[in-house]
Design goal:
Helix content: 25-40%
Radius of gyration: 19 Å
Low-confidence stretches: none
Oligomer: single chain
Number of domains: 3
C-alpha cells in the first residue's frame, strides 16, 4: 500500500522546521530517518498532510566527548553510533544497544533522534537512555530546553516534546566509575525484544555498588524504571543473593501484557532472568572511561 498524498518540506534550520510545525499543526509530522514513520504511512495508520524533513538541517549529526558526557546530534545514524570507537570506549552500553537494533538497513537509515521521538515501548534505545541518566535537548523557534530521559517517555508512542519542538541532541553521562550493559531476549536477531534490560552501575574502588539505574523495555506502556531493584543494589557488594533479590524486585515492577511473543507470566519470569544477567554483565565490565 502507498501512503496518501502529502506536501514535502525541507527546512534549513530548526527554527524553520518549528515554524512549519506551528503553521500546519496536527497535519504535520517531522521526518528523521523514516524507519518508523514511513512504514506507518504506507499502512495508512498515519496520514500527515505535511512532512517536514529534518535531514537537510546542517549540524545535527555528530558524536562528541564533552568531558563528563557524550553529546550526540539527533540526526546521527544508529550505524554511526554502532561503529564509533568513541562510543565503544566511553559508553559501551550505548554501543552494545546500537548493535542490537533491528538490521543493517534500519541502522544505516535510522537516527537516534527519530528512534527516541517515536517512543516505541518495545524499542531498545529508550531504556538505555533512562538507565544511563541521559538528557534530551529539545529546540524550537522559542529556544531550547533539557528534558531528563526519565521524564521524556510519557506513554506509548508519546513523549514530552511539544508540538513545535525538535529533538536536537542527546547528552549521556560518562565517567570512570560507571559500568553498564544492555541485554535483550528476542525470538531472532533483529526482532523487537520480548524483554530488554538496561543497567548502569556506579562502582566503588572496593567493589561496592554506590548507585544503580535499571530500566526495562517491552514490559509496560513505556520504559519501566525498576526503582525497588535499584535500592536493593545501592551501597552493597553485588553477591548472588543481592542480585537475585534485585532481579525479583524488577520482575515485580514490570507491567507486561500477553501477546504473540509470550504471556504476561512468561515475560515477568524473563525479566527476572534477564535482569540478573544484565547486572552481572555490567559488574564485570571495566569502567566506561
Amino acid at each position: 500500500m502507498n501512503p496518501k498524498s502529502f506536501e514535502y518540506h525541507a527546512p534549513k534550520s530548526v527554527a524553520e522546521a518549528s515554524s512549519l510545525a506551528e503553521e500546519y499543526g496536527m497535519d504535520a509530522k517531522f521526518l528523521a530517518g523514516g524507519q518508523s514513520l514511513i512504514p506507518l504511512m504506507k499502512l495508512r495508520l498515519l496520514s500527515p498532510s505535511h512532512l517536514i524533513d529534518l535531514g537537510r538541517i546542517p549540524g545535527l549529526s555528530y558524536i562528541r566527548d564533552e568531558g563528563n558526557h557524550l553529546a550526540i546530534g539527533a540526526m546521527e545514524r544508529i550505524a554511526g553510533i554502532a561503529r564509533s570507537d568513541l562510543v565503544r570506549r566511553q559508553c559501551p552500553i550505548l554501543s552494545q544497544c546500537a548493535h542490537q537494533i533491528a538490521d543493517p538497513l534500519v541502522r544505516n537509515m535510522g537516527t537516534i533522534g527519530g528512534n527516541l521521538s517515536h517512543a516505541d515501548p518495545t524499542n531498545d534505545m529508550p531504556a538505555v537512555m533512562v538507565a544511563a541518566g541521559a538528557s534530551i535537548v529539545a529546540a524550537s523557534g522559542q529556544g531550547s530546553r533539557v528534558i531528563p530521559a526519565g521524564d521524556f517517555f510519557v506513554d506509548t508512542f508519546t513523549t514530552a516534546l511539544k508540538g513545535t519542538e525538535v529533538l536536537v541532541e542527546v547528552k549521556i553521562p560518562i565517567g570512570p566509575t560507571r559500568r553498564g550493559a544492555y541485554l535483550k531476549l528476542e525470538r531472532q536477531a533483529g526482532d523487537f525484544g520480548i524483554v530488554g534490560v538496561a543497567a548502569v552501575l556506579e562502582m566503588s574502588s572496593d567493589g561496592r555498588c554506590l548507585a544503580a539505574r535499571i530500566a526495562l523495555t517491552g514490559v509496560g506502556p513505556t520504559v519501566v524504571k525498576a526503582t525497588r531493584a535499584e535500592e536493593i543494589l545501592k551501597g552493597v557488594e553485588l553477591d548472588k543473593n543481592t542480585i537475585d533479590r534485585a532481579s525479583r524486585a524488577a520482575a515485580e515492577e514490570a507491567q507486561p501484557s500477553g501477546d504473540l511473543r509470550g504471556s504476561a507470566e512468561y515475560k515477568r519470569a524473563m525479566v527476572e532472568v534477564m535482569t540478573s544477567r544484565t547486572i552481572q554483565a555490567a559488574a564485570r565490565r571495566r569502567a566506561e572511561r
